[in-house]
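Figure 6 in text form: structure in, sequence out.
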């Protein structure tokens, strides 16, 4: 939810880096795209423009879709205004007003695998891609499940250093794969995006050296300040380490592995793209650009237990554990699973700054995917409004299932 990405400008088409940066700046200015590498300092108009075409600002790798597209049937459409939810102050929730308030470019609701709602705004459409920010974290954790099923990762109880030996002697000595997934490593970390000296600020500007991944270069400098497994702390760097773990264990890039395991066999409609870091590796904690419908399809894949036809992509019961509270985050009714935000009613969600999200409610066979551009990265009122929408959809689905009086 709070991931900050520092975008490196493309340099591959230029002879010298200085010349390339000048060319890219002129091109970005002409297209109305931002040239500041820090997304928090982009204007709202720049974000509206950039979030749908991040591949023009940074180097990416393609997550290839297959030849067979999963066809979604249409279910009964939701009413234009959802009825009021008991306990909420609003008299009812207009979907049009909700999208405007949340500044959503795309919104897709699947229920029992059928499209109940699909709406687009801001000159954005069903075939267009939008960036995910930290929604990518939940997709990356799913790749850990796939790697366990494939035998590339033996156990969640394995020490992380078994797979990334470069971390030996760092704060990650004694930290398990599962503790990395739940962000309970106990390693000292500062995720304050407005502090130029924070770990997340310095981490994102680390350059590759002698061919070593910049993720490893920075993370191996960190020290442990709490016993592993005893404290939860949000840490984007650790999700990037999860990406390193999966790539090392499988011998494949994250884009290739996601395409092989989910994107192609599950029938995603469009190629997606993944932003790369200075070392040419996918940023595990951020930045997959895909269509809103394909994000919803990923939610459907997770809700179905990670099974495609007769093929079980992740271990049986993976999402039952990944999508339930494994760590206490200090918020009543909420928690953190394996890179998923959890609700005590059994639902769980992937969330990214500026309003990206995939909400999954297995009990109601419900998936809600949204992509947008909030006025700020994590405004409390927008988060509250989004949760209110989730409750309104849940209540409406419940009302349909209730016996007539």
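Output sequence:
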């Amino acid at each position: 939810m709070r991931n900050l990405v520092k975008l490196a400008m493309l340099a591959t088409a230029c002879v010298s880096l200085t010349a390339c940066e000048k060319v890219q700046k002129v091109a970005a200015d002409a297209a109305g795209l931002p040239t500041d590498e820090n997304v928090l300092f982009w204007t709202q108009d720049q974000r509206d423009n950039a979030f749908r075409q991040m591949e023009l600002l940074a180097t990416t790798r393609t997550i290839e879709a297959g030849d067979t597209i999963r066809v979604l049937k249409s279910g009964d459409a939701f009413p234009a205004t959802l009825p009021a939810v008991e306990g909420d102050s609003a008299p009812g929730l207009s979907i049009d007003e909700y999208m405007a308030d949340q500044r959503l470019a795309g919104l897709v609701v699947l229920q029992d695998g059928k499209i109940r709602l699909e709406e687009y705004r801001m000159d954005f459409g069903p075939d267009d891609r939008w960036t995910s920010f930290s929604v990518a974290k939940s997709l990356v954790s799913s790749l850990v499940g796939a790697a366990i099923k494939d035998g590339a990762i033996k156990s969640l109880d394995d020490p992380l250093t078994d797979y990334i030996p470069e971390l030996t002697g760092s704060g990650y000595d004694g930290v398990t794969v599962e503790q990395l997934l739940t962000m309970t490593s106990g390693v000292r970390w500062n995720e304050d995006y407005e502090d130029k000296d924070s770990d997340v600020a310095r981490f994102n500007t680390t350059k590759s050296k002698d061919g070593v991944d910049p993720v490893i270069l920075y993370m191996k400098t960190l020290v442990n300040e709490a016993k592993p497994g005893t404290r939860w702390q949000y840490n984007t760097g650790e999700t990037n380490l999860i990406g390193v773990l999966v790539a090392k264990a499988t011998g494949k890039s994250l884009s290739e592995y996601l395409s092989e395991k989910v994107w192609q066999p599950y029938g995603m409609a469009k190629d997606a793209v993944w932003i790369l870091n200075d070392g040419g590796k996918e940023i595990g904690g951020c930045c997959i650009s895909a269509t809103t419908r394909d994000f919803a399809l990923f939610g459907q894949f997770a809700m179905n237990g990670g099974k495609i036809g007769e093929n079980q992509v992740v271990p049986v019961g993976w999402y039952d554990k990944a999508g339930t509270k494994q760590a206490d985050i200090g918020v009543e009714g909420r928690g953190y699973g394996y890179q998923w935000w959890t609700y005590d009613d059994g639902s769980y969600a992937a969330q990214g700054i500026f309003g990206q999200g995939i909400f999954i409610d297995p009990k109601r066979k419900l998936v809600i995917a949204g992509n947008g551009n909030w006025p700020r990265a994590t405004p409390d009122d927008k988060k509250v409004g989004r949760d209110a929408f989730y409750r309104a959809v849940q209540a409406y689905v419940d009302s349909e299932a209730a016996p007539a009086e």
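Caption detail: The first strand starts at residue 60 and ends at 63.
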